[in-house]
Amino acid sequence: MTDLPHRAVTRSAKLATLPLGFAGRTALGLGRRLGGASAEIVAQEIQQRTADQIFKVLGELKGGAMKLGQALSIFEAALPPEIAGPYRATLTRLQEAAPPLPAATVHRVLAEQLGDDWRENFLEFDDRPTAAASIGQVHRAVWHDGRAVAVKIQYPGAGKALISDFNQLARVGKLFGAMLPGLDIKPVLAELKERVAEELDYLKEAEAQHAFAQEFKDDPDFFIPDVVAANEQILVAEWMTGTPLSKIITDGTPEERDAAGLRLVRFLFCSPSRAGMLHADPHPGNFRVMEDGRLGVLDFGAVNHLPDGYPAAFGTLTRIFNQGDMDAVVRGLREEGFIRPHIEVDVDALRSFLAPYVEPTRVEEFTFSRQWLRERTATIADLRPNNVVRQLNLPASYVLIHRVHAAGVGVLCQLGTTARFREEVVRWVPGFAGDPETPLDDATGGFRHTA
Predict the structure, then answer these.
(1) Beta 295-297 vs 222-223: how paired, if at all?
(2) Cβ–Cβ under 8 Å, residues 277 and 305
(3) What backbone torsions phi and psi does residue 122 show, to the nearest 5 degrees?
(4) Are 225 and 298 a contacting pair, CB within 8 Å?
(5) What is the pLDDT of residues 188-209, one digit of tens each?
(6) Looking at residues 133-142, what average pLDDT do you find?
(7) How far apart are CA 66 and CA 165, in angstroms?
(8) Cα three-residue angle 257-263-265, rounded to 5 degrees
């Protein structure tokens, strides 16, 4: 592969190989069964081949399709145990790697972006990428002043590919109307497309990463490598060593997994109040556990700018729910846009649906697990008409917050973390640690809009 496929017809054909390939493997499996192989062995082979095909196709496409693959790799924790095995290893690979661009293409991009004398910027440059992700790949190098650096190079055609993927998603989005009548999908897709498109501008990413690095400089819990140089398609940052979080998930001790999960939650909750931004791509490939125990954080292409910190409504509604005032919760959800004006919800069903998600804030210590996530996912996936999930909306302003929370929970369940998460919510989420005797605004008699 010498370039990123970006013509819509080409990418559509590539995407089509996922279901078509699966159909072919199913036919292959039928043939094996007629030949005498056991159904269990054939099923395992089909799942493994399908997993390999997912990695190959999504990895080659990169762009928005690769991001879909990374999202799937987070939620593999929700797969039933009998089918999770073959997918787990393959989808987790998407968090750390993708088929790389050849050295000649890398050199061409560097020459186009930095000039024919680009090598003068480096004392050393490793042509082999250390990581390949959705819209760019990373090479290790030594900067001209002797510092070890990571050089992030955007794939040629990444912009067109990303926009093409999301245009296709927008067309598919029309199907959501029948399944989820409470969801207004257009602003959600528009917001997601706009935010993810920002990732194409490495200068913006550099500004965000530098701001995080300055805020968390010498922090006892976190390390963010600072930016050395950048333009729109090249980003050079300090090199960071450490154990990938995906390795902690598979091989870490319970103590290591508990500590990593707690620091992940602390970073996500404290960042809006400290840096005015929320890291919006918390998949395991973007985190390292350093030798001193700090959590190293990478990839600031997707950030949610929250200059006033978390929306106070988030903490306030959680607190009110814990106090049992569902009428106030429903009013608050309507004000924030989670329940659209024409939608009526079953309050008892809403309480049952929300209770498990709020549970970590009600107890001093909580354990996230794959089983817990599977149970939550089964509720969401139930699209029967009486399922309250079908009645809820996702306001555009909460798209990235929801993305972070959903992905973060997936990572915590992969880690199986046990920790005192409530303390982090009390410390960092506005509105949560209110006066339990006066949860509502006395002046209005209802939920106070505080976002």
Answers:
(1) parallel
(2) yes
(3) -125, 140
(4) yes
(5) 777 767 776 777 888 899 999 9
(6) 86
(7) 10
(8) 105
